Amino acid sequence: MASRSKKRARQEPQAPEGELSNDVDMFAEDESPLPFQNGDEILASQPCQEQWQQWTVEDVAEKLRAIGIPVDTVCKFEEHKIDGSVLNRLTQEHMEDTLKIHELGTKLKIQAFLSELGFEDFDNLHPDGSKVFNDPIHGHMEFHPLFIAIIDTPQFQRLRYLKQLGACYFVYPGAAHNRFEHCLGVCHLAGELVSALRKRQPRLGITDTDILCVQIAGLCHDLGHGPFSHVFDNKFIPYARPDSKWQHEDASVDMFKHMVEVNGLEPVFEEYGLTQKDRVFIIEQIAGKPYTKCEEGGESTWRYGQEKAFLYEVVANKRNGVDVDKWDYFKRDCHHLAITSSFDHMRFIQFARVIRVDGELQICVRDKEAFNMYQMFHTRHALHRRAYQHKVVQAVEIMLVEAMKEVEESEDPYLMIPGDNGKRYKISDCINHMDAYTNLTDDIVHRILLSEPTDHHIMRAKEILQNIHKRKLYKCVGESVPITDADTIEKQGDKIKEEILQELSGQEAEVEKLQLNTTRFVVQVANLDFGKKYQNPVNDLRFFSKNNLNKAVAVNPTQISYMLPQVRFKEQLVRLFLRPTEDKETDRQCMRLLEKGFKDWCVKNTMKKPEELANIVATPRISTSAPACDNVTPTRAPRAPQSDTSAMKGRQRLSF
Fold it and tell me: Is 248 part of the annotated catalytic residue set?
């Protein structure tokens, strides 16, 4: 093995300083000997401090070979003429930038060797101040001191008070986890993936600084979420700021900048080698910089350009949606929702490689993992259908948004969010003031409930929230799925409501008597897809085979299984909710009319007939003990007369 390594080291062309080789072998597996082969017994007999100062270049090389350092690495020490007089000045930065040593095991071995010589000031790969978090999902996670400095700020601690799944907690009692632990998990997985790529492909030139930047992006990617997570940016802000295109990623960037500034973290970043340019790279990842293909020979606007652009695919992958953010919330949400997921992100990490595809480096995976990737996107679809877009969750979300709308219309200073210098802001104004946004969490619900009503807006907001706690939720009248591929026009909900009432022509007297108008019901649309609307995200993922590690290709779904979806990757559920009153009989009659109007509207607009959720009746079981014949109609044995109580047991009504 040693002779083959020497021969390869002599024959390989050297890349210019700061550049990656264009040779195909740059992405080949590292054939260097494994570290920690014979080092334990040799380290026990290292010479004293006076001796190492006299070592020649050959002496240093001999000592490194004796403790199992790979031959290629030893050659680098010899090429740079490192003798005993400079060993005490060798740092981790020198190893990575000058000697191009990126293999973690090799660096740890050299670190142990130098520590044995008495170099206590050597830049430790696990510096003092690191902490270990015991996570129920990923186990023990070790965090760099810089991560701890970020975690121990009010801006990050705020995430403890933001439910990861928002209103799902009102339906699934186990969904009590918060954005705080999710961000820790994303940070951990980002380090796992990038470290695995560096270990598998050292010539990618991934440095410790790169890993720190990617992990910090994962740690801070959700700093900008508002109360009840996506309820705030997807439903409340569009109402309060109809002309705004604001998303929580925008607030995450602003909050990150605010956090660094007010907590004086800039010197801490610089202490660990992260410059302003590195912070820009972190911000680009948090913002989820959209994937844009750079022209041949042109300059990328990205921090790292084309040669390390694959790092942007780790936290927020805009190319195909395969990123560590999803991996954590898939596993964490399934755990707390008690929903089974068959996707295994560790297999992706194990079989991931960076390969040049159409002139660009991107993260690819083994061909045998293609079905596993479909399982990942199926998990996303299942979570949306069973939890995130559950009809009762949607009902609670509507009520939460309406309560916040009422507060937004109020001038009550108690419910305005305090910022710096005694200023107070309305809920929607906080997105432009990070000092106030730091104080805006799910706690807004309790502040409303504990407030003294000063106007009808606050009184109405309290009433809505009290109804949530009393389980007086908006009732789902029915739901339907569009038959055609065209999107339902979600933003014209008022028009849809008017059209539904028009379907009740001929029953105007009853409608007027019940005071059934557009304020009594709500139209909501739930989008269910694989993450890229009608497109198949797996088409944008590239796979390689074990026979050719340097060529990645797209995989046709039929090459994986004929049972995979081929046509549609998105559907929409159109739902109708009734705002209940204290008069249950009136509500029952309104439900009956709306069911008819909604059903007729669905038929007219090429929608599937809605499920009549309010009147599902258990279907009696037909006996199949007798052999079935084509010309014989199954019959039931006559039943004995039933009492009123037993008759009711035959017609069970589902409660939601």
Answer: yes
